[in-house]
Fold this protein.
Amino acid sequence: KPSAAPFVPHEHTLPVIQAALPTCRGCDLYEHAIQVVPGRGPVTADLVLVGEQPGDQEDKRGEPFVGPAGGVLRKALAEAGVDPDAVYMTNAVKHFKFVQRGKLRLHQNPRMSEITACKPWLMAELDALKPKLVVALGASAAKSLLGGTFALMRDRGKLMQANFAEQVMATIHPSAVLRGRDDAAREQLYRHLRDDLMLARQYLG
Ligand code: URA
Ligand code: SF4
């Protein structure tokens, strides 16, 4: 079975994890992406946000949430009263998965096997960070952290016990906001994301 485990160092500090990430061949996704995209943020962060995987911009720049979804996320964080620079942002899957269509690289959802393969990196990061709260952004991160049967639209915005943090919560992915079918749908998805982040901020005090 594909797994990042053989590539993850035993010492779980952010610099050691970052240095080892480019060696990962834990699943096939490293083959076509430009580079691995590590998490980013202060080691003191008590809030960790977990996205799905890097997008086109993130793959080019090597940083998480620097494209359109990152713009939505930063706006929602600001409106929720959370300083984006105080948060650690990472992804459930560390390489961009896409299909080439002419010049465009179209995002593809990772398979459960790829999410599972990459999970040892995420667990190593959480072990280094020991955050108070982890927020899973969207279904892929929720599958990684909460299991394959988690029902996002039913159970979003609920604080739950976890063994990798004091609490865990799942919410809407900022890309889902952008993909909403019309203005009203996008507005409602955005409100869910912002309100859940507001609850996160209240929990953190
Ligand atoms: N979407 C994600 O899930 N993660 C990123 O880093 C960017 C977009
Ligand atoms: Fe390794 Fe994750 Fe990249 Fe797969 S997606 S090669 S498990 S870092």
